[in-house]
Amino acid sequence: MTKQLLSVNNLSIDFLTRRGCVKALEDVTFAVHEGEILGIVGESGSGKSVLSYSIMGLSDPAANIRSGSISFKGVAVKPHNMADLRGKEISMVFQSPRTALNPIRKVGHQIEDVLRRHCSLRGKALRSAAIEALARVRIPDPERRYEAYPFEMSGGMCQRVMIAMALACKPSLLIADEPTTGLDVTTQAVIMDLIRELVVETNMAAILITHDLALAGEYCDRIAVMHAGHVVEVAQSNSFPNELKHPYTKRLFESLPSAADTLDQLAVIPGSLPDLRGTLPACRYIARCERAKEDCSLKPLPWTHINSNHVVRCRYPK
Asked: Domain with 262 in it: what CATH number?
């Protein structure tokens, strides 16, 4: 078994708003090991991005960690030490590279900013390391691209620059939040192939946040499924979709176009995500679930261990 790198234990996060307290995450638990890609999938609003920003220490000021903890390499992560880890040990690729990059600053200089902050490089060594970072992500003619502005590059190239920036200090963990959003299918494959190659070459770990189940199944070693702020199932990717146990996960995979021969056969998940304000039942899927029974609303909601690599948060998994 590879070494555990990141551990999230019973993490619960609320957002205090004018319309009430939003229970965005509740008792989220999972781990990430060296050299693996963990996919986190679910509907929009399931808490995927909230979770990734929490790990990075970039939560909104309105966020309140009600309970739980995040540990990295066996050490509890606190707000005061997250700034030192971020960029050096843990890096993130954001959804939209064109908005994440400074439009009026050369991309090479933006990579240098990261290197200057976390690697203490100066002068010619700084420029050389920035060009090397661009070359590492297979950007053609990196010395010329070092001088380019983001608006002079395609969406795929900008995403490569974001990955180069994230990996410039050789982090142990890369978090990619919807890294292929807005990219054509061919460019999506190139970006994901690149991330997988870098994981294999450097033995770093990666978390892929995505709503694309097919993408997660192809590139991830394990998949964690989220629904309404809960992690409801975690399993090896080769277990999907044939060995799924949670009713939501089953429905989610049945709704894939590849799961149906005709439009009429395409499954639909009934209802919508619950309002996360106010009192919530133990299982937040209960109103949409065909297996629901009266005791599904009772806390605590148990974890069922199917095997050593497969757990499901459901009273009646099958």
From this structure: 3.40.50.300
Q: Which residue type is seen at 194?
A: L
Task: For 220-276, write each residue's pLDDT tens digit.
Answer: 999 999 999 999 999 999 888 788 899 999 888 887 776 666 767 677 788 888 999
Parallel, antiparallel or unpaired: strands 75-76 and 63-72 = antiparallel
Tens-digit pLDDT profile for residues 159-171: 999 999 999 988 9
Give the whole-angstrom CA distance, residue 255 versus residue 266. 6
Is there a contact between 137 and 165 (Cβ–Cβ < 8 Å)?
no
Domain presence at residue 100: no
* 174-215 pLDDT, tens digit each: 999 988 887 888 888 888 999 999 999 999 999 999 988 888
Q: Residue 238's domain spans which residues? A: 4-89+171-312
Cα–Cα dist 113/245, whole Å: 46
* φ and ψ of 16, to 5 deg: -85, 115
Residues β-bridged to residue 174: 91, 206
Percent residues over pLDDT 70 in the chain: 97
Residues 6 or more apart whose Cβ sits within 8 Å of residue 72: 5, 6, 7, 85, 89, 90, 173
Decide if 136 is inside a domain: no
In a domain, 37, yes or no: yes
Q: Is 222 helix (H, G, I), strand (E, B) or coil?
A: strand
Q: Establish if 175 belongs to a structural domain.
A: yes
- The pLDDT, as a whole number, for residue 15 is 94
Number of domains the chain is built from: 1
The single-letter DSSP state of residue 199 is: H
User: Distance between CA 22 and CA 17 in Å, rounded?
Assistant: 7
DSSP 71: E
Per-position DSSP letters for 93-119, written without gaps between them: E-S-HHHHS-TTS-HHHHHHHHHHHHH
CA–CA separation, 65 and 137 (whole Å): 36
